[in-house]
Amino acid sequence: VDHPSVGTKYLHSISRKxxxxxxxAHIAAITALYNAMFDEEGKERASALTYFFQDGYLSAxxxxxxxxxxxxxxxxxxxxxxxxFEWVLENMIVWRGLQLMKDSRRIxxxxxxxxxxxxxxxxxxxxxxxARFFGQWGYAHAFQKKWDQVDWxxxxxxxxxxxxxxxxxxxxxxxxDNATYLDREHKExxxxxxxxxxxxxxxxxxxxxxxxxxxxxxxxFESNLYLTPTSVEGVPNEGTTTxxxxxxxxxxxxxxx
Length: 257
Fold this sequence. Notes:
Blueprint (H helix, E strand, L loop, with lengths): L3 H10 L10 H14 L10 H22 L1 H8 L3 H18 L7 H18 L28 H7 L12 E6 L1 E4 L5 E4 L3 H10 L4 E5 L6 H4 L17 H4 L2 E6 L5
Parallel strand pairs: 1-5
Antiparallel strand pairs: 2-3, 4-5
Helix pairs in contact: 1-2, 1-5, 2-3, 3-5, 5-6
């Protein structure tokens, strides 16, 4: 689901050439949306998200609605970017809808967001039974089993009846121990994952980068629920470790890059 600031910057970057007359108003709307959310140096304005939430999304909806009536013109103008242009607009509007969910625990938010992520992915999957995909997703999104009352993207791929990859996923979890990262202001921040994960693995790891295979014959992770973070408010987890992920990479003291 596209963040409006990231999405708007992308839409602007692929629609800067002179449009045909029939598209002038629609491309001008994208330019106006960008100028309202970013300053002359390309830096995001402090008011960007508020603007999109209150007014900017109407511009996005207007352009999205115009695509069907002018599809041939949009396809000719945008070329290989035409499909992405449409989907980014759609997902920016979905993002706004998610923010309207009054859900302090974000259960409904995460449920709806990962449902949209799943739908987006299925739209991209070719009709090829031998297709293989490699992706990088944040933490719980990759879990192959319902966790914290949410059916995450990985769980949907692994278990949904309409998933072409049902029963075929392999999940490798990254776990960070005393690492650093750069935030949106490019300031260094420390990060450590749940102690349920980094505690047991860190006690046996002798390297700053260690790959643990959890699945296998007689593996205790196949029959017990270890390493899985406790759900918020103590909602019990179910199943075994390898129901959620089969490998784990423990990353210690990694610098921000």
